[in-house]
Amino acid sequence: MKNLEAGIELIRTHEELAHFVGPKSDDLVQAGETALGLQFPPTYRDFLLKLGCGDIAGEEFFGIVTEQFTDGVVPNGIWLTLKVRKDTDLPIELIIVSDTGDGGYYVIDTSIRNEDEESPVLEWWPGLDIPRSKIPVVASDFGEFFLRQVSYALEHWEV
Questions:
Q1: Is 95 helix (H, G, I), strand (E, B) or coil?
Q2: Omega of the bond leading into 42 within 30 degrees of 0 (cis)
Q3: What's the Cα-to-Cα distance from 126 to each of 67, 93, 108, rounded to whole Å?
Q4: What domains can be seen in the chain, in order of their start residue?
Q5: Tens-digit pLDDT profile for residues 59-87
Q6: What is d(CA 144, CA 16) in angstroms, rounded to the nearest whole number?
């Protein structure tokens, strides 16, 4: 949770570069979990409750926009996850939280939980037939991923 909070603090200090939809209610977050048929790890759940979804310095984070999960557009991560599940081989345990910029996605793997109930963030590409154990892990949890991506975006932002 410490990494998520550090990322949120960076966003607060660079508000002019940030565009987030804003906090979401616990009921709406639970509706997102129900729509996907899984439970969000604590750091991703906290991100949704505090920021919903959005971007900073061009780095986009998918999440919840509204209660509309059957039709939508990015950055609606619930809608996108459901759509990619339907259109490709996205495993049901994965939640799309961002894109790689080259056709892949950053996903939370909820089939793995540590002692804090956190799940790792992986790089996943549609149609790439590799065992789950070979999919690259990019962060131990969403908070670590979020802080790293926010920091990178701010370091490389060109005015």
A1: strand
A2: no
A3: 26, 15, 15
A4: 2-155 (3.40.1580.10)
A5: 999 999 988 888 888 899 999 999 999 99
A6: 23
